[in-house]
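Researcher: We plan to redesign the surface later, but first we want a full-length starting point. Tokens attached.
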């Protein structure tokens, strides 16, 4: 059969369509190594959990999906990493509520003092409906998708001089995390909150730039803050969660199946991290006890401090009331 002009054009159009369709199929099967930024150092429980997510993804997808973890702020500080995720330049970031809470007051509510008073309760709190609901505001407010919570132990205070209790924080120049939630708490205790970049904290304690610092047990043991301190004060007041985030722009490019895999493995790894942190806390406390005196903060006017704190934060983060109510039941 001879081809007339119409047959020729139809045949050419059909042939041209094939190369256009084929790359879509290929793209769906392309290998993807997600880049994940995190501020904590190698060996920190959060880093270990992030690496577990990558390992599970790689095994499940036979290498098609994997994660390269960049620790210790290699990709910038948390503000920079969050900005990179907003543009899609960074795939994932595990970002502390200190950074998120400075942008989204509702998130900061989980950093309020005495929402819970133990690491075990902190582990339960992040699994409750109010804590989960906090993640729902992230796409709109930050351009990221929150997949789940990780925790630290309750934070402790290290002092460069011997102290006996919480009253001794009055007048102390205390290095804190920069979140406003912590600043307001320590100011109510009479301390002078002093933000110092994490890599400089050990030296700041050594040279007297600050009188003390506050941090979680895992990070503190990693950095050996006991070597520049005379006392560790067990506060049992605040903790610092982390949220596993995915860039909203990157999330939109993933298939429903890949989204489900990333979500499932992230939550599995974070659930394990939470439980391991709870179990490991007594071990860390024993290590510190062998190196430095540990005092427990007795707070006679705890309810007064909470009331003063909530005057500041309830107008900004009404969900704090719900978090306190749930925390009291744990």
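Model: Full-length starting sequence:
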């Amino acid at each position: 059969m001879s081809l007339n002009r119409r047959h020729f054009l139809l045949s050419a159009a059909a042939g041209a369509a094939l190369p256009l369709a084929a790359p879509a199929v290929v793209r769906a099967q392309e290998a993807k190594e997600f880049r994940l930024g995190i501020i904590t150092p190698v060996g920190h429980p959060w880093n270990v959990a992030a690496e577990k997510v990558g390992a599970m993804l790689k095994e499940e997808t036979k290498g098609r999906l994997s994660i390269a973890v960049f620790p210790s702020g290699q990709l910038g500080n948390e503000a920079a990493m969050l900005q990179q995720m907003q543009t899609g330049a960074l795939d994932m970031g595990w970002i502390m509520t200190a950074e998120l809470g400075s942008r989204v007051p509702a998130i900061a509510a989980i950093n309020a003092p005495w929402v819970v008073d133990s690491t075990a309760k902190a582990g339960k709190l992040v699994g409750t409906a109010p804590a989960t609901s906090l993640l729902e505001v992230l796409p709109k407010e930050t351009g990221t998708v929150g997949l789940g919570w990780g925790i630290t132990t309750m934070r402790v205070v290290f002092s460069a001089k011997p102290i006996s209790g919480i009253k001794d924080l009055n007048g102390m120049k205390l290095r804190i995390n920069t979140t406003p939630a912590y600043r307001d708490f320590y100011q109510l205790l009479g301390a002078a909150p002093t933000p110092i970049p994490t890599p400089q904290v050990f030296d700041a304690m050594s040279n007297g730039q600050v009188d003390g610092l506050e941090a979680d047990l895992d990070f503190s043991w990693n950095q050996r803050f006991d070597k520049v301190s005379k006392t560790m004060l067990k506060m049992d007041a605040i903790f610092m969660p982390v949220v596993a985030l995915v860039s909203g722009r990157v999330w939109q490019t993933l298939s429903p199946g890949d989204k489900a895999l990333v979500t499932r493995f992230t939550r599995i790894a974070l659930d394990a991290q939470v439980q391991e942190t709870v179990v490991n806390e007594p071990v860390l406390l024993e290590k510190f006890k062998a190196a430095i005196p540990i005092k427990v903060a007795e707070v006679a006017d705890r309810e007064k401090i909470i009331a003063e704190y909530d005057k500041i934060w309830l107008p900004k983060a009404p969900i704090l009331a719900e978090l306190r109510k749930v925390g009291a039941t744990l």
